[in-house]
Design a protein that fits this description.
- Two copies of one chain form a homodimer.
- The first copy, chain A, is mostly helical.
- Chain A has a domain of 90 residues: Arc Repressor Mutant, subunit A (Orthogonal Bundle).
- In chain A, 63% of the residues lie in helices and 8% in strands.
- Chain A contains six helices and three strands.
- Chain A has a three-stranded antiparallel β-sheet.
- The longest helix of chain A is centred in the C-terminal third of the chain and has 25 residues.
- At the A-B interface, helix 1, helix 2, helix 5 and helix 6 of A face helix 1, helix 2, helix 5 and helix 6 of B.
- Chain A binds a DNA duplex through helix 4.
DNA sequence: TTGAAAATATTGAATATTCAACAATTGAAG
DNA sequence: CTTCAATTGTTGAATATTCAATATTTTCAA
């Protein structure tokens, strides 16, 4: 059996496309769930990262939540207005700003977590536990290798 | 061995996050390659879908290239200016517009395909053929099941 | 056949993101 | 010490995306 050269692959055979498509669908599903709390997916990520209680600099946070710096700055501005998070200057390095969750933010984060977990459980139901775990494993190692 | 409840999962354990992260990285890599031709990833997708030579309506195309309608309309406007694609009214249903690639678009598409293929080959090199194929398979079936 | 509802694509205003320039602070070489 | 380069975060302008409203054509029921 001879495969066609990759140049003629339909776009749906490309890894980059499959990733984009899967990401789009899963993200849409989650977005729909989180809309119950009126919060975009990125804010859930931010709250979740900050929930370890340690202060995180804007740079760290931007990397962790997959946003670039200016976008993060503006989203944080909104979240500060909503009293979900607050800024403190880092005493060790006064260029940095450390971000923290407020109590209100923590409470919201708990509600968002449970919505997100319920989504993931729903996926596991229709897609299977084994496939889900295998997919997670492969994605994790792809990310590691793609540096 | 007892697992922690999913509510306390770090965000990096969530399927939605792993997908977003992997998609971001792979997409960035591809974007970098395609920048040699000064073209965004979405335009490669559009050209590739239209390369079957059949006319595709805006609706079909939007679904296929993972863009929503107004965004696609505006991107197509640019591509028409660049003489990469052209519009024809569908004679069977005059609500529809059928999109076609120009010769110039076809030539560009060939160059873009080879850049994209070389990226994918690079991934296969560091990540392995087996993992790549298994990941593709799992993504494909996730998309199927996630309807 | 007519008229209302659905489907398709585009537009413009509102919103969000990105790019490049900036300000503030730190680090480090001379 | 002093100065210059690097790091960090924010801002404003330019760009892109989205939402809601529109125009056009088709479908279908009465």
């Amino acid at each position: 059996m001879v495969k066609p050269p990759k140049e003629n692959f339909p776009i749906t055979e490309h890894l980059t496309y499959l990733l984009a498509q899967a990401n789009r669908e899963i993200n849409r599903q989650l977005e729909t769930r989180l809309s119950k709390e009126g919060v975009p997916v990125e804010q859930w990520r931010i709250l979740k990262v900050l929930s370890d209680g340690n202060g995180h600099s804007m740079g760290e946070l931007a990397d962790a939540v997959l946003l670039n710096h200016p976008t993060l700055t503006k989203m944080i501005d909104r979240m500060v207005s909503d009293a979900l998070v607050y800024r403190l200057q880092d005493p060790k390095d006064r260029r940095k700003v450390l971000m923290f969750v407020s109590d209100r933010g923590k409470a919201l984060c708990r509600r968002l977590n449970s919505l997100a977990v319920s989504q993931e459980e729903h996926i596991v139901e229709s897609y299977g536990d084994k496939s889900t775990n295998e997919l997670k494993r492969l994605l994790g190692s792809l990310i590691g290798s793609a540096t």
